[in-house]
Design a protein that fits this description.
It is a single chain. This protein is of the alpha+beta class. The chain has one domain: Histidine-containing Protein, Chain: A, CATH 3.30.1340. It contains 3 helices and 4 strands. The chain has a 4-stranded antiparallel β-sheet with strand order 1-4-2-3, with helices on one face. It is globular and about 30 Å long.
């Protein structure tokens, strides 16, 4: 399953937001992947280095995919909530 969500956090997917996203992804027992385009390239959402390496700015569309729909829903919800920073 995959879903796309726009990043609304002012700093994009950097530092704190990336750590929060990877920590959440690690709570699921399935591979979770991210991309900035539906066709990829896809990266491991459980690697903070790879997530920060996306350099996804505010306004970018983040594609999330995993075999578990709950994992996709949880990560998309976190992004929609502005990574719980009160900034998104």
């Amino acid at each position: 399953m995959s879903e796309a969500v726009a990043i609304t956090h002012p700093t994009g997917l950097h530092a704190r937001p990336a750590v929060k996203l990877t920590m959440l992804a690690k709570t699921f027992p399935v591979p979770v992947e991210l991309a900035l385009a539906a066709e990829g390239p896809w990266i491991d959402a459980k690697s903070v280095v790879k997530v920060m390496g996306l350099k996804a700015p505010c306004g970018a569309v983040l594609h999330v995919r995993a075999a578990d729909p709950a994992a996709v829903a949880a990560l998309v919800d976190l992004v929609r909530r502005g990574f719980d920073d009160g900034a998104g």
